[in-house]
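This follows on from our talk about sequence and fold. Please put the record directly below this note.
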Amino acid sequence: MTTPPPAVAELGHVGLRCHDVSRQLAFYSDVLGLTVTDHDERLGIWFLSARPDTEHHELLLAEGRDAPPGSRLIQQVSFRCARFEDVLGFHRRFREHNVRLDMIVSHGNAVGVYFFDPEGNRCEVYWRTGLVARQPFVEHIDIETDPEELLDAIRASVERHGATGFTEASYRAWTREQAVAADADTAEEAGR
C-alpha cells in the first residue's frame, strides 16, 4: 500500500512586516473590516481574520519591516469576497478613505479591485464570477457601470476570449514596466 503524497489544502495566512503596525492595523481592521483575533504588543504582532469563527488568522501584521519604503516585496495579497456587491462596496469605501487604487479588472473568472495598503503593499478584493477563463485574463472595467450591464459585458468577453485568455495592451505594457523597474533595482543592489 502506498501513501498518497502530501497536499496543501489551502493557503492559511500571510504575514506582513510593517514600518508602522498601528497604521496598518487601522487600515486592515477599519477599511477592510478584518477582525483582530489575538495580539501581543510586547512582540509587536497582530492576528486578523475575515472568518474568525473558522480561521483564527488569515493575516498577521508584525513590526520590524526593514526594507526601505517603496521596496517591492509582495506582488499582491488577495481577499476573496462572497458577493459582487461586496467588491462594489469596497470600491466605494476605498474612495471614501482615499485608498490608492491600482486597477479595476475582469479576470473572466473573477472581478478584482487592486489597491495599495498604507505601506504600499499591493492588494486585491475580488469576487469569483463562476465563469471559466484561461489566465492571464486582464480586461479593465468601469465598475461604475450598472452591475447587470457590467456582468453581461464580462460574460460576453469570456465567450470571446475565455478559451485563449486576454490581456489588454496597457496591462502588457505595465507588466513590462514592472519587470524593467525590478531589473534596475536588482542592478542597483548588485552595484552596492
User: Anything to note?
Assistant: The chain has a mean pLDDT of 91. The longest helix spans residues 169-191. The radius of gyration is 19 Å.
